[in-house]
peptidylprolyl isomerase
Amino acid sequence: MSIAVKTMRKGEKAELAVKFSYGFRGRTVPESIELGASADSNLVIQFELIAWKSVVDVTGDKKVLKKIVRAGEGFDHPDEGSVVKVAYTGKFEDGSIFERKGSTEEPFEYVALEEQVNEGLDRAILSMKKGEQALVTMRTNSVGLDDSVVSTNSVLSYEVELIDFTKDKPFWKMNACEKLEACESTKNDGNSLFKTGRFWCASKKYEKAEKYVQFDHCFTDEEKSSVNALRLSCYLNNAACKLRLGDYSGATKFCTKVSLSG
């Protein structure tokens, strides 16, 4: 049935006919069915697809999973440096609460990717849209949580609502001076994250910093030397992040950018 469901649309009703031996393969057969069925018997299953919940692999390695409980608005979502307003409750496997922040009326406000919440939750919130509600699950040993707060390798769940968010001023609305200052500041934030071993977050900072100086046309000839130095620094630092993360194709990409900029 799990295979058939993948082919259905919301609200669709279906009748599925399968061999008894296939339908209960690897599963315990209820006594009421087993008594009157042979391996060659046909089973007819009637079912309706009423709804489903989308599950997102936030980190790409199934260490942090997000199940969308209520879809959000529009297409936009926060990025690093956004001021986000959320309400969330963290629970252990047994349902007991270990952390609760904010509410719909008085949300918890923080800056994304600034180490103000644990990295797994932070990354999940970055994938959410305004108004979205989600259930985020993760293992403690995959998100760097303090062992004094939660036990090693236990499964945590967060019920999260992204109430609102505000992004930084977009780089295309900045003048040259603002872009240089923003690039330098964001790169330094990346350096701090790199030193603490948060390589994924550091990589995102370097990517953001590079965008501020991606194009030369708004800078004077005197400023362009500083721009080039900042850009190369972002490439090299990001390559180092990718190596630490085991992303060798990513490291090669940034090293290639350095060689082409020379």
Observations:
- The chain has three domains: 2-48, 55-166, 171-261.
- The first helix runs from residue 2 to 5.
- Residues 55-166 form a domain with the Chitinase A; domain 3 fold (CATH 3.10.50.40).
